Amino acid sequence: MASGVAMLAILLAGGCGGADATDLAQAGRMPAPAEVAGNDFANELPGSATGTEQEGGAEQAVSLEADTSTIPHSEIDLDAALHEIAALEAPADVDADMFGELKAELGRLLEDRETEGIVVDDSDLQAARRTSDTSRKKSKFVPDPFQIRINRITNRLSWHYILDGDYDQNGIVNAADLVPLAGHLGEVAGEGGLHDYFEIGTVDYVIDRNGDGFITPADLTAIAVNFGRVAGSYQVFASEEWHDVPWKPDKDSDYIVPDVAPLGSVTLAGAVKSPGGQLYFDIPLTDNNLSYLWVLKGEDSTLRRSPVAWPGTPFSERYSGVTPFRIRETELRYESAGNSIGMLPILPCDGDRNGAATVADITPIGIYLGKAVGAELPLRARHIADYDQNGVISLEDLWPLQILSGSACAGFALFHAASASQLPDGYWGEELNEPVLTVLTSELVYPKIWDFQYLPEQIRELPFVPEPGSWMYLRPVSITGNDYGPVCEFVQVP
Fold it and tell me: Nearest to residue 31, comparing CAs of 405, 455, 332, 361?
């Protein structure tokens, strides 16, 4: 269970697949053409594709050209580094004596790094967790450095550029990063209270890498630990299957990376600057019908994965009122004999059936760890802890939970469209129709028999008789009841 405990930390720090058009056609549930067009992402975003980004109202080209170059490991030449620091002149608006003290302190830290054998460790933002004696005591706030967001309305994917210690954001950590640190030295977030932190998207946020809400000499540590480090490229991926997302069995393991082709890659040249001064990426996507989007960052011969993108804009909070991933297991169907619909109310990884996939859903894995189902499950039954549905309860069941954690669903709403033209524009399209009925999870009964959960099919009689050729579809309902998740599936009335 030691690895399971380690994975808990990853879940706390981090964060439903879909069928392709052929699967839907074979099942008799073909969505409108708008939902299945252009799923070949690798061809839609080739290495030479470009998009546009905005900076101060002006458009900039975003290169998606492939970058497979090897990024050198950031071993440093101490003598050369100390000469670089000594040659650095104080900016005109910075006190020369204070700047000299910062240079001396950085030199001392680099010498300590050399003698103590400190090396760059890209896992878990080592620099952000290191403080010196000059740091004020305060609870630390080190948010996810990627802040990856998908805007389903504009169909753009965004994430932040962060290279610890690269305070001038030019792609390399060196002596020049003392200049922005000196220029902001002494700045305080808000009133300096326990929960006051610099706003994400600002230069202060970039510089405050120990996350204490103060710009102090303690923030020199990130420069020293990462001195010589060079920004790598970001590869962009998308899939409709959660098991295509790379994962770590525990924090000390390497990523298990499935064989998924990237859409393309972006280098620092494709970043733009926010109004507050932080660099970020904001790239266009040509398809809006895949649930899981993430980026892999390669630098210093290491690999880091962003969390899976959640809805939002580049500097917004993560919205988690409803699952942002498609739920395919609902098995919606129409029965003309009783003028009713049948469906299965399922939220993947919600082992305790409380309407949310959370860290608490680790508990069933711990209880049944090592258990093999051993026999084919009864119809519409699942083992309570078999989140990856492979018949064995193992630490690999943490994989989907890590990705889907935060998903929520208060129930499902059924919608009706008289024709394909009235369907939403894609699975995440804006909802213009009113639901004809809603099935809330609080109204359902989930009988438990030993360690299995039976999922009784919910039958609901319709309040009207749909015309043949019309469409019905389900969307998960948010916990507030005023928003909907992506369409689960489209069903045409026979």
Answer: 332
